[in-house]
Amino acid sequence: MKADRLLSILLLLQTRGRVPATELAERLEVSVRTIYRDVESLSAAGVPVFTERGRHGGINLLPGYRTDVTGLTADEARALFVLSAQGAHSDLGLDGALGSALRKVMAALPAPHRPAAERVSERILVDPARWMQNSQLAAGVPDLGELQYAVFADRRLRLRYRHSGTPAPVEYTVDPYGLVNKAAVWYLVADLHGEPRLFRADRVLSAETTEETVRRRAGVALGEVWAALREQVERLPRDVPARVRVRRGRLDLFLRLHGGRVTAPPPESGAGPAEEWVELALAFPAAAAVRALLAFGADVEVLAPPAARRELARAAAEALRLYRDEDGT
C-alpha cells in the first residue's frame, strides 16, 4: 500500500539521513520513478523532504525535522513487545535499556494498540532454557561483557579457552564478527588465523580486548560466517548407522532426546496402537555413543549392527558389576 510505503520512506530518512533513491527503491521493491513520486506526495503533505543530485546526492529531510508517528500496526506492536520475554538482553546487561525503550515505544503507539501491546507480557512467556538444564550453570556466561565490548569496538580478542574434553586451556588471539545466541547458549563467531571458528562463551576462561583493530575478511558479515559454521556442525560425520526399536509409549520422549540422530522419518502411526514397537534408523558418531540408549532400559532395543549391541551389553555388564550386592545378588 502507498501509505505504508510513504511511512517507510519517512522512517528510513529519519533514521539514516540522506538515502539514495536507488537504495529506497531496492528496499521497498519499487521503481526509482515511484520513489520520486512518493517524495512529491510527502512534500505535498507538508513533510520537509527534498532531493540532492550528484554522485553523493539522495533524498533527505530538513535537518531537525522529526515525527512521533510510529506507523506500527497492532500485530507489529505485539511482535515488538515479545522481545521483552526473550531473555538474551539479560545476558548482555540490557534489561534496563530494553525496558526504557519499550516504555518510549508504548508512549508513541496509537492509543487503540496500547492494550494489545501491554497484554503481551501477560499472555506470552518465553523460557529459553532447555528442559532439565541446570539454571545456575545456564545463567553463568563468563566474560560475555568483554566479548560484547570487543565486538562493538572492532578490536581483536585474546582468549583463554577450554575445549570440550581437554583439561588444559589454550590461548588464542581472534578477530570477532559477533555473538550468536542459539538455544540459550552464547557463541562467539570469530576468525582464527583467517579461518572461521566458533567459541562457546561458557568455555571462555578469560577474555581481554586488545588495542589492535579487528582483521575481518573483506565483505564477510556475521550472518554469512554463522551460516557456514552451522552447516559444518550439522554435517559432522556420523559413521555408525544403527537400527533400533522403541516401545510406542516411549516414542515421543525418545524422539525429543534423540531425534537429531534419526536418519529417516519415523513410520506413520497407521499400523495402529496394537503395534507395540516402532523401528527407527539412527546414526552415531561412534559405537560407544549408543550407550546413551541404556537410559531407556528395556523400552529400547538396538537391533543392528552387532558392534552396537555388544557395546550396550558391555555397558550393562559394567553397571551390573558396579551395583551388584556383596553377596553376589
Question: Could you describe the 3D structure shown?
Answer:
- The structure is a single chain.
- The chain has helices at 2-16, 21-28, 32-44, 74-81, 88-91, 95-108, 114-123, 135-139, 144-153, 222-234, 251-258, 306-323, and strands at 49-52, 58-61, 155-161, 170-182, 185-192, 195-200, 204-213, 240-247, 277-284, 300-304.
- The strands form three sheets. It has a five-stranded antiparallel beta sheet with strand order 6-5-4-3-7, with helices on both faces. The chain has a three-stranded antiparallel beta sheet with strand order 9-8-10, with helices on one face. A two-stranded antiparallel ribbon has the order 1-2.
- Strand 5 (185-192) and strand 6 form a beta hairpin.
- It is 38% helix and 22% strand.
- 16% of the residues are buried.
- The model is unreliable at 136-141 (pLDDT under 50).
- It is built from twelve helices and ten strands.
